[in-house]
Structures are given as C-alpha cells and as structure tokens.
Write a structure and sequence with these properties.
Chain lengths: ~110, ~110
C-alpha cells in the first residue's frame, strides 16, 4: 500500500514568487491536513480538508491557501513568498473513522526562499 | 485555541535507562493524544496514541499515561536503545485528530548515550 506522496521534495524560490505543493494521500483516506515545520516554531497546523471542503485553518496569513480534489489529492499554495516561509511542509492523511484519527505523514516538501 | 507545552527540550540518557517526556495541554476538550517520533531527515511517525477515556497504554517498551484532571500526559520509554535517538513530539486534538488537526509540542531531542 503506497504511503503519502508529496511533490516536489525540494524547491528553491525567491521572495515574491508563489509556490504550489502537492500531496497524494493513502488510497481510501479522505482527510488531508498540512503542517509547516521550522526549527523555531516546530510543527504548526495549516489547514485540513475532507471531501473537498476546508474544515479548519490554522493561524496563518491568507497567502497560504489550499484545496482538495475529488480523488482526495490536495494542493497548497503560498503566494508572495517571504523569507520566513522557508520550511518543511508536511502533508498528512487519515481515514477519519470515529474515535482516534491516526495521521500518516508524507516525507515533506522542503521550501527554501531566497 | 489549544496550546501544548513539552519538556524537556533535550534529554540525554544512558543506553538501557528509562526516558520520560512530559506534555501539558490547555483545552480540556482535547480527547486524543498521539506521540510522534522523527528521526533526522525523516517524516514524523506515530509511535503510540491514547484517547481521553483511557489512563494508560503500553506497547512493548513504550507507554503513555494521561491525567485529564491535571491536563498532562507523558511518554515513557524503558530499556532505551541507540535506535531510540530521535526527536519526539507530543500532540493534542479536540476532534480526535480530525478537523482541527493536531497541536504539537515543540519536541524533545532524545539522545541515547552508549
């Protein structure tokens, strides 16, 4: 069974540009969430999607957006990049059954903003 | 929103000794508490989780305890081995890891000394 796949794995952008990251969840998983990981702030929740609907968003500016497609694949977009957006962006998928909802993470997309 | 504090930030123990990592959470509505292990350059992986209706859970050398009244939970690793060296993150969620995602602690770097 394939795991959570994120593309691209590494990318370098310059300030002011925009970036789109992709996440393919485990087959059958309908919930996809995104996290930003930095040395200073740790792992921070960006947003969560279920059945193409964003159900919640973390404390990030509107430059951070996302969407989920009918096949549960998800993309996140960051516009007008800033140096502080350099981070590892992790996607996690889950089956979302009742009770504990185990999140499985992808390997991440490492974004460097110059 | 939920806030999770994790201590210590770094923990060094002799191989074979036990390690304990502690977390506190702020939202009494939180009902799901997973622990993730992240090795250098790799994705976070779930090692154990506990729901709010359970006080303790064990899986071989790993155990987690939850005190809902005090709003804290702890990870216990016994008979530590070199492969236990990693960063450990605790997390909490009010939707069982669903729509609100996970709120993570800042992480504990566990170092196993030979």
């Amino acid at each position: 069974k394939a795991g959570v796949t994120q593309t691209p794995r590494y990318l370098i952008k310059t300030r002011g540009q925009q970036v789109t990251l992709s996440c393919s969840p485990i087959s059958g998983h309908r919930s996809v969430s995104w996290y930003q990981q930095t040395p200073g702030q740790g792992l921070q929740f960006l947003f969560e999607y279920f059945s193409e609907t964003q159900r919640n968003k973390g404390n990030f500016p509107g430059r951070f957006s996302g969407r989920q497609f009918s096949n549960s694949r998800s993309e996140m977009n960051v516009s007008t990049l800033e140096l502080g957006d350099s981070a590892l962006y992790l996607c996690a998928s889950s089956l979302y059954s009742s009770g504990a909802n185990v999140l499985t993470f992808g390997a991440g997309s490492r974004l460097t903003v110059l | 929103g939920e806030n999770v504090e994790q201590h210590p930030s770094t923990l060094s123990v002799q191989e074979g000794d036990s390690a304990v990592i502690k977390c506190t959470y702020s939202d009494s509505a939180s009902n799901y508490f997973p622990w993730y292990k992240q090795e250098l350059g790799k994705r976070p992986q779930l090692i154990i989780d506990i729901r709010s209706n359970v006080g303790e859970k064990k899986d071989q050398r790993i155990a987690v305890t939850l005190n809902k009244t005090a709003k804290h939970f702890s990870l216990h690793i016994t008979e530590t081995q070199p492969e236990d060296s990693a960063v450990y993150f605790c997390a909490a969620s009010i939707t069982g890891g669903g729509a609100d995602g996970l709120t993570f602690g800042k992480g504990t770097h566990l170092i196993i000394q030979p």
